[in-house]
Structure formats: C-alpha cells, structure tokens
Specification:
Layout (H helix, E strand, L loop, with lengths): L13 H6 L8 E4 L5 H8 L4 E5 L14 E5 L15 E7 L7 H6 L1 E12 L20 H6 L4 E10 L5 E9 L4
Parallel strand pairs: 1-2, 1-4, 2-3, 4-5
Antiparallel strand pairs: 5-7, 6-7
Length: about 180
C-alpha cells in the first residue's frame, strides 16, 4: 500500500519500508518528521501516528485528521523529551541525530515494539552534508544505544549509492515482550 503524499513528500526510506511490517498494531512516533514521509506510510498501514518536529508546516495537511497527533517541539533546546513516559509500537527516526535523545527513544519503544532508526555516519563528510561530526554516528553507535534494552533484528553501517551517495547507520530493533 503506497502512503498518501503530502506537499512534495519524498518517498519513505527503503530501510523503513523493509521493516515496517515488523511494527505491531499500535501508535507510531515519527521523530523530527519533516514532511512525515514515514508517518504517512504508517498511517496508511492503519497505525495512529504522532508526528514531532520543531516546524510542523510540512504536516499542516494532516493536522486534525483522525489518527494523527502533531506536536511542535524543539528537540535540541535542552528541555526533557516531550513524550517521556509514553510507549509506542514503533519509533521511527531518519536523517536526524540528537545523542541526548537516544536513551529516551529506546525507552519509548513499548514491549514488542520496534525502533527503526537511520541516519548519517562517519564518512558522510566526504560525500556531502552533514559534515559536522556532532551529526555523524560513530561506528557501532546505534548498536550501543540499544544494547541491553532491545534485540537487534537488522543493522547496517554502510555507504549507500541511491538515491544519493550517503554513509549511514540503520537499525531495526525490538523490545522483548517478557
């Protein structure tokens, strides 16, 4: 099922599409959602979605729709994670890194739920933006972020060649139910 498109919404990540079926029934968090390409994918799959970004203009067409919660929040302003204490069947983040939030994102995955994370890794600076090491994952950093809390289903640290060359780390990890 193709996700509905919003204003110039880019297609969902191949990684997220590949593992979307692992997310059980329940709410999905699309963190730093931008135009909500992944929130739209999961909404089309029947999940209620929570879309979080500091600028919600890219999801204005979704405001007030059934099964869609929008939350405007600057995730890097030093305030506590705005969804602390809430659990999600799926937590999705792509092309975004705030290391202080990683523990909160792992904690937000409810039992049986799935973390789908994909962002830039070291080596990206030679290919283009971002170039700041603060926004590039160190080798194995996503694995370390989930160690002891989630079970890794799939992990990659590689250079992609499509749609644009990029060095990425990506993970699909599940919180055990018992």
């Amino acid at each position: 099922m193709a996700p509905p498109s919003g204003p110039a919404a880019p297609p969902p990540s191949d990684w997220i599409c590949r593992f979307a079926g692992h997310v059980p029934t329940g709410p999905v968090l699309d963190l730093a959602c931008g135009r909500a390409r992944h929130g739209r994918l999961f909404r089309a799959r029947g999940h209620p979605v929570t879309l979080v970004d500091r600028d919600l203009s890219g999801v204005a067409d979704l405001a007030g729709r059934d099964g869609v919660e929008t939350l405007q929040a600057d995730l890097e302003d030093g305030r506590p994670f705005p969804l602390a204490g809430r659990g999600f069947a799926g937590v999705v983040a792509t092309n975004y890194l705030s290391r202080p939030l990683l523990p909160a994102l792992v904690a937000a995955v409810q039992p049986g739920g799935v973390l789908l994370y994909e962002t830039f890794a070291r080596g990206q600076a030679r290919l283009g933006r971002p170039t700041n090491p603060a926004f590039l994952l160190a080798p194995g950093e996503l694995l370390e972020a989930v160690r002891g809390a989630l079970t890794v289903v799939a992990y990659e640290d590689r250079t992609l060649h499509r749609p644009d060359p990029a060095c990425v780390q990506r993970i699909c990890a599940v919180r055990p139910t018992a």
